[in-house]
Amino acid sequence: MSTLTQDDQTLEASTGWLHLFGDATRLRLLALLEEDELSVADLTTITELPQSRVSTHLGKLREAGLLHDRRVGSSTRYRLHGAMPPVAATLWELLRARLAAATLAADAARRDALRKAREQDASWPDLVAGEMERHYSPGRTWEALVHGLAGLLRMGDVLDVGCGDGWTGRLLAGRCASYTGVDRSEKVLAAARRRSKGLPNARFQAGSMDALPFEDARFDHVLLFHVLTYADDPARALAEATRVLRPGGALVAVTLDAHDQLDQTRAYGHVQPGFSPKALRALLRAAGLEVEQCARTSRERKKPNYAVVTAAAHKE
Description:
Elements: H1 6-21, H2 24-35, E1 38-39, H3 40-47, H4 51-63, E2 67-72, E3 75-80, H5 86-96, H6 102-121, H7 124-128, H8 142-150, E4 155-161, H9 167-172, E5 176-183, H10 186-195, E6 202-206, E7 219-225, H11 234-243, E8 245-256, H12 262-265, H13 277-286, E9 290-299, E10 307-314
Parallel strand pairs: 4-5, 4-7, 5-6, 7-8
Antiparallel strand pairs: 1-3, 2-3, 8-10, 9-10
């Protein structure tokens, strides 16, 4: 038996690729699967070809590395592979630009009709699957989610630095041994006391984050929610928070990521241009805390698209 030379092997491979792309049905399937993830049943409906024929061609394309598939319930969905072999990718790029036959236009029209029918039949969760948090649904708000998750909390003595007008206090007071809110604004504190009326374990006190009016190791949990951008000395504020935290206690900080929009945020009283995860992690460690998490956790959709950093740490 003769052995193929390298040139023979290259020629054989090239001939194989040309044969694969030389079939009109396979080109139709590739064109459809570049736009959508579709099942055999979908492709049979769109192309109006027998299911056995569609399945045979899909098998050849998948075996050649041009498609990837995934199971969804009892069916398999196919899509053009984003990392197909280089030779195949080059050939497809050349052919795709020249595919303008009436048959392909008819396929696209039937595909669009199928998609529209599915959207009309689909439930709301199906339509927004994968980005549900970005879409409105009656009653399905972030506030409602927070109230639900708060029901899981069982906290000790909580200090909320920069507590604002008491929304967080109202949320947490029934889930902790005691809640203490500190803020420098008497007007804001008056609003917080009104909001928390009837909650015997909640109290609000004037004070500065740079010199908290509490003894050492007083609290099990310290919260710094959107307060560090107001700190003249963030390192000192974190040192104070650590001082009043009991050994084994937890601190959670939420703040803007580092940005270049200080001219805009000054209107809200900010004096710091946010903190990158790396910078905030360093500040927490310098304060004597063990950092468990410090990362960007969200980004606003509205320009200038501020990002938010969340950190969780504990005191040894």
